[in-house]
Write a structure and sequence with these properties.
It contains no helices and 16 strands. The protein is mostly beta strands. It folds into two domains: 136 residues, Exo-inulinase, domain 1 (Jelly Rolls, Sandwich); 74 residues, no CATH class. Strands 1-10-3-4-5-6 form a six-stranded antiparallel beta sheet, with no helix packed on it. It has a five-stranded antiparallel beta sheet with strand order 9-8-7-2-11, with no helix packed on it. Strands 12-15-14 form a three-stranded antiparallel beta sheet, with no helix packed on it. It is elongated and about 75 Å long. The mean pLDDT is 94.
Length: 218
């Protein structure tokens, strides 16, 4: 289509349900050209695809779609954007949901009626001189959900905390404790069932310590 510059990726296999696409964008301001750049998902052909990205001249980030050659902005967020500056643009596809992140900050999301992993993915600019670098396309692995724990113990008395008991794992996966840090006392990872993976933490307060103490784990 006139004015459109679209590059799609052929990954050689069906796209996963959850997909992460990222690129560094830098749009030049030059006479006779617009300033924009987008990540493309669910690309069927040059007249039917979804896009997420930036209109530098309009100072906005958008999610939109091209349907039968007609472009539509579906969600937009106004923010100051500079031409000639690098921006890290990310698009996360989770089945039918598209989330846009700019420089590691979530900007917006939009859900569609159908899954977004049926077409190709790629990059797109409309009548613009935009550079795309450091392009990444990979499966997005969902993370488990950690829930805070609270326990009580006596002075100089160690306590074992089954920190994973209330955490939420992704279906079909297992979770373990890989590290813990912080706090005034001593922290020890515990592998109670001796399967090689820690699932609990033993906390030993400092001698004579009284009060509230906190630590984190991953």
């Amino acid at each position: 289509r006139e004015g459109y510059s679209i590059s799609t990726a052929n990954v050689g296999q069906d796209l996963p349900e959850n997909l992460f696409i990222e690129a560094t964008l830098n749009s030049e301001r030059q006479s006779g050209y617009w300033t924009n750049g987008f990540i493309v998902v669910d690309y069927q052909d040059e007249e039917n695809f979804k896009f997420a990205g930036m209109y530098f001249g309009g100072n906005r980030v958008s999610i939109g779609q091209v349907v039968n050659g007609s472009s539509q902005e579906l969600v937009r967020e106004t923010m100051h954007l500079n031409t000639g500056q690098d921006y890290k643009l990310s698009a996360l596809v989770e089945d039918n949901k598209l989330t846009v992140t700019l420089d590691d900050v979530d900007i917006m999301s939009r859900s569609f009626d159908d899954s977004l992993n049926g077409g190709k993915v790629g990059l797109f600019a409309n009548r613009a001189r935009t550079h795309f670098d450091d392009v990444t396309i990979k499966e997005a692995i969902p993370s488990p959900t950690a829930v805070d724990d609270e326990v009580f113990t006596s002075v100089d008395q160690a306590v074992t905390i089954n920190v994973l008991a209330n955490d939420i794992a992704i279906d079909g996966t297992t979770i373990e404790v890989s590290a813990a840090s912080g706090g005034d006392g001593t922290i020890t990872l515990i592998d109670a069932d001796q399967d090689g993976d820690a699932e609990a933490i033993q906390y030993t307060p400092s001698n004579g310590f009284r009060g509230l103490d906190t630590f984190t784990y991953t």
